[in-house]
Amino acid sequence: MSESYKVSNIRDGFHDYVGLEGIAYSDNYELKILLSREIKGLLKAEDTKDGIRYIINGYVDFQTAFKRSANVSGLIAFAYKRMVEVLKNIEDYTLKAEGVLISPKTIFVNEDTSEVAFIYVPGASFKVKDDFIRFTEYIMKNMNHMDDEAVLLGYGIYSIIRQDHYEINDVVEFIDEHSKKKPTKLITEIVDDDKSNIESNEDIKVKHDSPAKLSFKFKSIVERIKPVTEDKHKFRQVLILTGTTVIVALLVVLDIASGL
Description:
Elements: E1 6-12, E2 15-21, H1 29-36, E3 45-48, E4 51-55, E5 60-61, H2 62-68, H3 72-89, E6 100-101, E7 107-109, E8 116-120, H4 128-142, H5 148-161, H6 168-181, H7 183-193, H8 218-225, H9 232-241, H10 245-249, H11 254-258
Antiparallel strand pairs: 1-2, 2-4, 3-4, 5-7, 6-8, 7-8
């Protein structure tokens, strides 16, 4: 959606609120449901003479939480899993996914409990898939690219949601599989183990403008990394995204991997 709207923080009595300026909402059955129910994963709404506002006691926006999180990959995983859960569960209240506003400024995180909550705008018809992509692009742009776990997770999710046809459950399945496999840990172990194959530090001279000279046993390493992923595309992605100089050098022998 267009981000021409403005998010405003309001302190009123004992509550902290967030309001939206520039987004129209409808006084319809969705508003009545939102005002009368406590819906898990959605911020509680209040209707005032100045418009609808949402209670955010104990929450900060995702943008803030992301910048100061000590566990970015965990925050990313929990945010997406909660997002998918909310988009599915609100159907039980006859609310629609298009009413959920997805952006770093309008997703809220309780840093004490790790709970994630979303804004629902009655009568809105946001383009959820487009917002999903923009939210993921924000994460990729602003993450620490030396954090291998966060990079693999963020770019893995992005590769899924950029497909023309995908199910939101695909994102959750990927996150669950990622948490089980821990590919960067495996790759680090492989690199450490094969250091014995390097005769001296001069054997590897990695330059930005020329290929690396490696004395690794390429075929052995590729064979051991191969099970981490299911196909050549994902295999290439793991190598690219680890941020490990030695692993990036293995891109030179990807054609060997495809023939194993």
